[in-house]
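Fold this sequence, please.
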Amino acid sequence: MSVQPPSGDSPGIRISDADRERAAARLHQALSEGRITVSELEERLAVVYAARYGADLAPPLADLPGDPLDVTVPPPPLSTPVGPPVVLRTGVGGLRRTGGWAVPARLRVQSGMGSVLLDFCDAELSHPVIEVELEMGAGSARLLLPDDATADVDGLVASMGHVRSKVPSVPMAGHPHFRIYGRSGMGSVTVRRRYRFAGRYF
């Protein structure tokens, strides 16, 4: 592959994955503020994640507050939760937390073969950063996050299963951020928003 020399019409500097995540976080914030719809969010995210240069990020961000190309400012640091975690355990049965439950700053989930569902969408989130440690055996886990939340899953390791996150990883000031780590044996771990179909969420 040959590398072309710089020219006057060069598209500019290539962006990084972190730049794309920051742009995606701005779109999710715009959704939470009511500036764009869910369908617009999906269309714009497709453009953001396909972007290679800073100029590629201008169209999906052009009508939102701020400089569309200002994607290099690092997110504000977030403090790490302290204190012992709240432990949830299950063996071969399932474990579910849904509705208006109070979420602690630190949560440890231990599951042998059962499935785990943690729905944070209607929960009481009193902490800016929430740590979730997963110790999964053969079961799978689903973590459903609010539309304005972000999640870092880099510390989560799957032996024979897989880890899939469909939410931005870069934290946003004023919005809940999840740090999800631990291990999964043979099951899968999915982190995503809730889906809505026929007036019902799942």
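Helices lie at 17-32, 38-50, 58-61. The chain is about 15% helix and 30% strand.
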